[in-house]
Amino acid sequence: MKTILLTVDGSAPSGRAVETTLDLAPCVGAEVVVLHVRETEALPWTVQTVELTTSDEATALVDGVVRRMKDAGVSARGEITEAMHGSAARDILRTAREEDAGMIVMGSRGLSDLAGLVMGSVAHKVLHLADRPVLVVR
User: Fold this and answer.
1) How far apart are CA 136 and CA 110, in angstroms?
2) What's the pTM?
3) Which of 31, 33, 51, 93 has the smallest number of CB atoms closer than 10 Å to its CB?
């Protein structure tokens, strides 16, 4: 495995996924690509979209995780993509293919399968659509 794709969103489960990746990457000698998908949501009564995280917040999040990886001796680089709300899973899977990631690591907020289906959990979508191993950390 040459590359691990680590998705981050600033949540507690995402933080635990960072810790897990810090343990895993040196064992397999993989570079870590830290990905944050900036979601925007279309406002139905206008043609405008609203950012769910700002560009500065996304950059600070990714840069902080990359710095943490490098401080621990793990090769890492960051990437930020933009997607409409509900399309984050598609962006994660596309990035995994483009980076030829051997594994995707991500946090989950702990929704049940039913809640994940109803509420559209990103982790649930990635798990069911991925063509490579996915490690979900709670």
Assistant:
1) 10
2) 0.89
3) 51
